[in-house]
Amino acid sequence: MTNVFVGPYRHPLQTAKAFATLDTLSGGRVILGMGAGHVEKEFDALGLPFAERGRLLDEAVDGVKDAWGDEFTGVGDDQVGMRPRPVQRPRPPIWIGGSSRPALRRVAARGDGWIPQGTPRKKMPDSIAYLRAQRDEVRPGADPEIGVITEAMYVGEPGWEVARGTITGPPEKLAESMNEYGAMGVSHLQVRFQSRSIDELCDQIERFGAEVGPHLTR
Fold first, then answer.
1. How far apart are CA 94 and CA 110, in angstroms?
2. DSSP one-letter code for 156
3. 3-class SS at 69?
4. Which of 55, 68, 95, 153 could make an S-S bridge to 113, C-beta 3.0–4.6 Å?
5. CA distance linking residue 89 with residue 98, whole number of Å
6. Confidence at residue 82, expressed as pLDDT on a 0 to 100 scale
7. CA atoms within 13 A on the CB side of 165
8. What's the domain range around 193?
């Protein structure tokens, strides 16, 4: 999953082509995470109106969906073909990034999932409730996935000073903390680990999968 690909920066056909190819190469494992962008100078450099980034993202999401849905795009002699076709059917999922009210409304209307942008744990329930209320108004029956970027973790007791807010301790403690997200309705965890080296990071990833994973309830 891209976290996130700024949709307004490229033509939707370019985006659709790139991610259809990646979906083929990965055997159907792509999730396209798209966001509106927030760096005004980047929009200036590309000659794009920063104030219209929300509209541009909506057009990008809709354009990618159209390109994935029909192999040929355009009219008459202006038609272009789109191959390879995505492996996933009917298409790869598109998740929407951001934590503002407009971003949540965009998830409700268009997204297959939501990527929060640093939403604190205590604010997640309200944001999820708002997303679902908006979904019920504009797209009843849709069920966008909900992800979260977790606090940093360390499986076990570190013998060194980790960053403030890091969740440490035995696997059961970390699983209990992650299961709180599951109880809110979160289905995808983007986990982060404290480490001092690549080897330690790989060890933490392995331990999380082997020791924490079996205790996750969702």
1. 8
2. B
3. helix
4. 95
5. 26
6. 86
7. 6
8. 148-218
Q: Which of 92, 119, 96, 110 is nearest to 34 (CA)?
A: 96
Task: Name residues whose C-beta falls within 8 Å of residue 184's C-beta, 6 or more positions apart in sequence.
Answer: 124, 125, 128, 146
- Enter the tokens of residue 90: 């009917």
How does residue 52 score in pLDDT terms, banded at 50, 70 and 90?
A: very high
**Residues 91 and 69: beta-carbon distance below 8 Å:** yes
CB atoms within 10 A of CB 60: 23
What pLDDT is recorded for position 75? 65
Using the 3D structure, point to which of 143, 172, 187 is the last residue of a domain: 143
Where is the domain boundary, 143, 161, 184? 143
Q: Which two tokens stand for residue 63?
A: 């354009």
Cα angle 150, 114, 175 (rounded to 5 degrees) comes to 30
If one counts the domains in the chain, the total is 2
Of 187, 156, 186, nearest to 174 by C-alpha is 156
